[in-house]
Design a protein that fits this description.
alpha/beta; TIM Barrel; nine-stranded parallel beta sheet; two-stranded antiparallel sheet; about 10% strand; globular
């Protein structure tokens, strides 16, 4: 499969942004009304939302994003943790602590037993899904190391509990390698372009295979060609103008939809954060302030309403709270970004600085106090509701009849087995209150599933 990479069109983006740099009130209102139809937005529409400046319209954008989030996702927030297995890297990315020439961090590749121990540490916290992350070089086993590592995560257990979904963030692969990855029963394959602006990409990637822009931007195509249904993409905001990045991201999404009939399952929105040994990370070329960051999340929720938006622990606990209402549907919790970080505390060898250092239990309690249901469900993945099948259920709203009850039962399982007494009380109150507010089939399903969990069953879903 030969992939033409001109679907990222810098000139087209510049022209659209220039055309809508100062949209009038009527145009902004037209786009926001369209967004509430939850059928997505065009590049022109997104440009309008990046160009508006009126504070009242900004509030309406945020309200619209909140409406879409509540309508599609309800109060669910999927919870996961990254699992870094190696920080070995032959690339020279000037914003990253893992870059090849950085001598300020300790290099390490976990062996399979160590990976199992790290996984057990996550299981003890209550995690059910992890994102396996590797630097862009592997030990002598090569790519087989990644395959073995996925297997080790699934094999690990603690007191009968295990990880139920492994998502993977590794360097771009060939179609044949992606097929091998799929055979290990991974969930989502995640890869970030970092920046879609070619000149900036060239400036910040100055050594290693990652210098090849085209090879990286077409990795989702190869993954989907290999049969991996769920793809995660993202931008590292701060490397270039966020307005450009948003429109380029939309071009990437539209190309995947054109080629495969479905776009990405998730979008991540990391901002540049300080990283050991990187001056650039501490002084972003195009810094994104907090209001702009909220705007980014809200625009994405309006533009791709059925795509998950991931918020990592790069951000502070307050920013994470603020973005829940704007469209975020997945969060990491209790994260570490260095290999071995869950059994050892060595943040200086992590990939970047964390903004939210709270332990898992505290994050879960905070989320519940805000009225959100922390979801540990992996039912859709295991029942084959992925890719186009997931979207076919999501767009008419049918997926909520599954996701709401499953979120509650998986949260109840967490509360019964892992929560502190304080978190347990807050969580149980929320579960019962939420079931009482449901109606019809979702209420019936939720009550039955939660009752089964309270009778000692685990891993129940519909």
């Amino acid at each position: 499969m030969t992939i033409n990479t001109d679907f990222i069109n810098d000139q087209s983006i510049s022209e659209i942004l220039s055309k809508h740099s100062k949209p009038d009130t009527a145009k902004v209102q037209e786009v926001l009304v369209k967004a509430r139809e939850m059928k997505g937005l065009s590049l022109e529409d997104v440009a309008v939302l990046t160009g508006m400046s009126d504070p009242l319209q900004m509030k309406e954008l945020f309200d619209t994003a909140n409406f879409i989030k509540d309508t599609i996702y309800g109060k669910r927030l999927v919870v996961f943790a990254p699992l870094y297995i190696t920080n070995l890297c032959a690339n020279e990315c000037t914003y990253c602590a893992f870059r090849a020439k950085n001598k300020a961090i300790v290099r390490r590749a976990l062996n399979q037993e160590e990976i199992k121990h790290e996984t057990q540490a996550l299981i003890k916290q209550g995690h059910k899904r992890v994102l396996l992350v590797a630097g862009e070089s592997y030990p002598k086993q090569g790519f087989q190391y990644v395959l073995d590592s996925v297997r080790s995560v699934y094999e690990a257990s603690y007191e009968g509990a295990e990880i139920r979904r492994v998502n993977v963030n590794v360097a771009p692969l060939t179609v044949d390698e992606f097929k091998l990855l799929k055979a290990e029963k991974i969930g989502t394959y995640q890869i970030f372009q970092e920046t879609y602006h070619r000149e900036t990409y060239k400036k910040v990637h100055i050594g290693g295979k990652k210098m090849d822009y085209d090879w990286r931007v077409t990795a989702p195509h190869r993954a989907m060609e290999a049969g991996i249904d769920d793809i995660g993409i993202g931008v590292l905001f701060g490397l270039y103008d966020y307005r450009f990045e948003l429109l380029a991201l939309m071009q990437h999404i539209r190309e995947l939809e054109r080629a495969f009939g479905v776009g990405p399952h998730t979008i991540s929105v990391p901002r540049l954060e300080p990283a050991t040994g990187s001056d650039l990370a501490s002084q972003p070329p195009f810094p994104v302030n907090d209001l702009e960051f909220r705007r980014i999340v809200a625009i994405l929720r309006c533009a791709v309403p059925y795509t998950g938006i991931i918020m990592s622990t790069r951000e502070t606990q307050q920013m994470r709270r603020d973005t829940f209402a704007l469209g975020v549907s997945q969060i990491s919790a209790g994260s570490r970004t260095n290999p071995g970080g869950y059994e050892e505390d060595d943040e200086i060898s992590g990939q970047f600085s964390l903004g939210d250092h709270r332990p898992m239990d505290e994050v879960i309690r905070d989320v519940a106090l805000m009225g959100y249901i922390p979801s540990f469900c992996t039912g859709c993945y295991r029942l084959g509701r992925t890719g186009q099948d997931f979207m076919d259920l999501a767009k008419p709203g049918a997926i909520k009849a599954h996701c709401g009850p499953n979120a509650l039962s998986s949260f109840m399982e967490y509360l019964n087995n892992y929560a502190s007494p304080e978190t347990y009380k807050v969580g149980v109150d929320l579960v019962e209150r939420t079931i009482a507010e449901l109606e019809g089939l979702p209420a019936e399903r939720a009550r039955k599933l939660v009752d089964r969990v309270n009778k000692g069953q685990t891993d129940v879903f519909c």
